[in-house]
Amino acid sequence: MNANKMMHVVVVGNGMVGYKFCEKLLAKQKNGPQFILTVFGEEPRVAYDRVHLSAYFNGKTAEDLTLAPESWYTENGIKLYLTDPVVDIDRDRKEVRSHHGVVVPYDYLVLATGSGAFVPSIAGVEKDGVFVYRTIEDLDFIQSYAKRARKGAVMGGGLLGLEAAKALLDLGLEEAHVIEFASRLMPRQIDDAGSGVLQRQLESLGLKIHLSKNTQQITGEDTIKGIQFADGTLLDIDMLIISAGIRPRDELAKSAGLTTHPRGGIVVDNFLQTSDPAVFAIGECAVVHHMIYGLVAPGYEMAEVVASRLMGLEKEFKPYDMSTKLKLIGTDVGSFGDPFVSEPACRTITYENKAKGVYKRINISPDGKELLGGILVGDAEQYNMLLQTCKNKTILPPDAEDLILGSRGGEEAGAGVMGLPDDALICSCEAITKAQLCHEIGENGHKTIDALKKATKACTGCGGCTPLVKDLIQGVLKQQGHYIRNVLCEHLDYTRQELLDLVKINSLKTFDEVLDQFGKGDGCEVCKPAVASILASLWNENILEKGRATIQDSNDRFLANIQKGGTYSVVPRIPGGEITPDKLIVIGQVAKKYGLYTKITGGQRIDLFGAHVGDLPMIWEELIAVGFESGHAYGKSLRTVKSCVGSTWCRFGVQDSVSFAIEVEDRYKGIRSPHKIKSGVSGCIRECAEAQSKDFGIIATEKGWNLYVGGNGGSKPQHAQLLASDVDKETCLKYIDRFLMFYIKTADPLTRTATWMNKMEGGMPYLKAVVVDDVLGIADELEREMQLLVDTFKCEWKEVVDNPELRKRFAHFVNVPEQKDPTVAFESLRDQKRAKEWK
Amino acid sequence: MEALVADKEEITWYLACRVDDVPTDGGACVLINGHQIAIFHFARRGEWYATDNECPHRQQMALARGMIGSLGDEPKVACPFHKKTFSLRTGQCLNDDGYQIMTFPVKVTDGNVYIGVE
User: Fold this and answer.
1) CB A7 within 8 A of CB A108
2) Is the ipTM of this complex over 0.85?
């Protein structure tokens, strides 16, 4: 295109919105450049992420926060002037002049001057030690001043103020205060009750909160000493950060004669046009729909509107949803729709749990049909779903409280993501609707999150919509009548359960046999361990024999847990956590001899870290000599059966839990399963062995034992559910046999029992029917299969120690087997050692 | 003349190990001139490969202990630590564009495995 015909666009302001405008305008010029872009910025650095400014105190550098490096502007032909604000607009000549005297003509001018911190006119605000929280420079000042301060305060308990208060804590101040004029924190987002819950959470972190405080003056000579409030009270502080709101930067527009709002801001219409049609204003400097949008998302939408209009496209800035969800100093806070509407204009349902620090409020229409808005503090997991329900005016279920409490028994509340209308905005960062996503999934075959990311950019922004998108994929596929099969990978088009049956019927013993008969290609790191697990679960042969070593996952391959630096940890089995002094001594001797770090595990065993791969057989030879066996800490198999001391010593114990734990651990040790299995046996209802957090747990009663299944610790803790009560030992073991074997035969790879049960159609009642009532008539078979595994147990480490061929594989260098990996390095720590930190 | 000689980089072949030192369809590590090299016997395809033993992701000497397999037709190895996978042919990381490992030619004669180093 001829340069003479190119339009000149000048952007005043290189903040987040100004930058986004450039990015969007560039992206829209698919047929080569049509604009010459010039950008003026007042700050010395290119646009950076002001939303995550606090991260600067947590180790992020200015570079990390940068939205695009300076080279990006050059590469895209943008002329960028930094530290050079525009000081004059000549609207007649259509040109701008900068502080340094640069004069640039424009066809269109985009004002993205943003906002500055609003500093109330309080006596003493000019004193040393008073700061605002707006730019990286502000943060640098705060950081260096904080080194000699002990007590700090933030004026303003809004979103940014609380961020700043957290920063004071992070900077190591002894006292950090928050002073808020209103009677609650975050007055624009949450109500009094929500503020109360938030306040308790913040106070537990050490913040001191002062509400309804009117600051009268800042005391001290040249330097701040404290603040005095209108009620006469005083607060001693060494530094103060003012975060009392924002003030739109409209001074340039005003001096150019553009219409501004009496309370600040450049007045624009729905097309972001100012009183001069060649001049636009976007972001926090603009007053649109009679208000200032103080969030980044609507600012980006304004950038989109102006970029579209310059390209000749029809686009209008519509009232923007101000719902927000954020993690504030570890506490989730969400506010959506109209959070404050009150009765009789609505019916309000609230839930408060002081112990957990959770507050939830929803406002529903008087006829009970629509969700008008709400507030979530402490637990905002339902935010996305509630926001969608609210925005799309979805008809509510009869028991609207299920929306925040979760359904108690029966089906999931609401219709879920599939119940939303087609135009529901699923990804608000990229403005992608449900219909668009359904089309990509259903018509274009993008059936994974990764594929949808590439096709639509959904989930690439904040990522908050990912769970919804996942549900949508499942929903669409189900709707299309697809039976959703969780097949292993590109090489084996079977579910784990299908493959297990095939391998069993055909008596296959090696990976190659399985792949030759039922798969294609050469296998991979997904199907190899899955098949390895199936083979082990069915035949219980040594996992390293018959070419099976190389299909084992990292840890199983060397029968030890690989750790940072490439050394391994060793866990001998200590059934039920019971161990003799002599055996303890041997563990200590071995650890000393091979220079191992020792630690007690969560499962009542001892973990020995830092073993070279070549030392593993010798370590085990010594452990086995005194009667230890493999603890299978490396395997997807039974780990440990934790026990409390029970009736042999404990004055409360009603049964001998240790003896039963040892019996259970010896019965199921070494059995390979879809994922690891943990268990516990408690000697009474006090539950010291925490059996209800295990895959299967046993608790003693006066009459026998209660059996619980499907518990889990980890990131999603879940209590186990009662499967049978007051049963004797034999019945208990019989049920465990059936339960475990049913799990081994039907679960997907790497699925814990809890997840397996959560996904099971019919849930616990169905499982009970299969395991206890034997409705499928498979109980005998399950018990027989389990008995085979029990009877064929061999300690796999003993087999390796006794087998020179297998033993030979435990060397780092095959051409110099006696040499250890020279790159392995340790650091010392509390009289022991640790792995050297990796980069 | 000098330039010509420099251009024609000679490959030096080093005896690395015996064929049966490397597990079938798996890998083993050898030390050659102080350099750790992973050798893979891709028996299913009748192929041999050699790469750096170090995974560039966390600089761990572990690729020889990884599982091998294929992605489409591309032979690959997965690092035991975080399952970054690398093409055995080109050394390109297949699930993270930012990483690359070196590959080396392999020759097998009389039960001996040789690695070519430039």
Assistant:
1) yes
2) yes
